[in-house]
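Ticket #4471: structure export looks truncated?
Reporter: QA, pipeline team
Priority: medium

Steps to reproduce: submit the single chain below to the structure queue and open the exported record.
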Amino acid sequence: MYYKGWYHLFYQYNPKGAVWGNIVWAHSVSRDLINWVALKPAIEPSIKADKYGCWSGSATMMADGTPVIMYTGVNRPDVNYQVQNVALPRNRSDPLLREWVKPGHNPVIVPEGGINATQFRDPTTAWRGADGHWRLLVGSLAGQSRGVAYVYRSKDFRRWTRASQPLHSAPTGMWECPDFYPVTADGRREGVDTSAVVDDDVSAAARVKYVLKNSLDLRRYDYYTVGTYDRKAERYVPDNPTGDDHHLRYDYGNFYASKTFYDPAKRRRILWGWANESDTAADDVAKGWAGIQAIPRKVWLDPSGKQLLQWPIEEVERLRGKKPVTLKDRVVKPGEHVEVTGIQTAQADVEVSFEVASLEAAERLDPAMAYDAQRLCSARGADARGGVGPFGLWVLASAGLEEKTAVFFRVFRAARGGGGGGKPVVLMCTDPTKSSRNPNLYQPTFAGFVDTDITNGKISLRSLIDRSVVESFGAGGRACILSRVYPSLAIGKNAHVYVFNNGKAEIKVSQLTAWEMKKPLMNGA
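Actual output as written to the record:
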């Protein structure tokens, strides 16, 4: 959240080690979302309602500007019995909000009426209706397999009443970390405050859509739908009736338990996501930390209304070195690769625009894989010769290419009878299977289809490279993939970046610009 000139990030943290357990709410602050100072934990187990864990939750700005936190507490030693608690700042005049107090009336929401008490957590940011009531969601599991977002109403954040029916549900398994927020539907990139659209403002309501995001406990990824919020019925309806089956995702890689907030300073909505480690627990203990936050992303609704677009916040560009290196109008022939030289690339920001001379060589998409980008990428990785592609970047690559992480596109002709108007299908992949010579790593390929029109042969890619992280944005943020990699050779000055083309069709790098990135400030206080 943003408060009195400071951004505040609260995150799940184990102060006793680099493994899961002893969870508290750590607290860091920043002026610019890039350089951070860690404060002492904001919320730790201290009352009966959170004695055995302070789990996730959200912050809300009250009408008078006071921030309030709602969070999940575990209150039993033998079972993860989950209740919802409230915390308030001890001194609201302190812009750093260094101390939080828990009122004696906690817990304020308990699992009643047949709710599964061990699957009942992660209250959202609340929003205020024209009736003066605040509303929030709590994620849960109904029966054996139905993810549920329960609605709770309150006037004072003390007494909460559950609505007669959920906001939405789907047979996806447990819904963790729900997020629900408005986005502009008129093509503008401005964010919308969660409480900005009131019930009786019909014109305002017509200019927004709503996004419901849930984190799937079973599958360990986040998915979202875009739809309509009926405030009177307290119901949400996705625009796409199959949206709960064929999942849109913020990120097709290692990206989970995400959360957005509205930034009033720049009138934008910002997305945070967590990426866990892909090495061993012993490695984590040795290095003394585990888990990272992705670079914050600005999110807005695509003019088509079908999906969100995402882009790294503009502040990250302040870490760019003064002199970038460039390639321009460079043709890369089939089987060829070209090194990007002149900067160190273990920490780099690379933006590239590709042009494909002809799509005639594109392979026909197998109908069996028309909805399974992951399977398609695994079957036809970066080294498998294709028609149009694979082409893209090898990052964190060693000089002899023994190690490399591939971020690439591959273009297919539409499957017969596959819909989509017969336009070419674009697959985006990250393939880390050759990222390290260390054998004790989890190295899955990640992939998603990019909803873009490539009939003109043009597509763009941006990759943020940060030693063990490769975070990539395809076609202006229409598809995003974050991958964790742990090279053993391509480290520091020994890391290289190449443009490669393993397709039959020539590609042209119409423009590539790469910056060496400086380290941000991360201090404890």
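Status: closed, not a bug. The export was complete when the record was re-opened. Leaving a note from the reviewer for reference: The longest strand covers residues 175-184.
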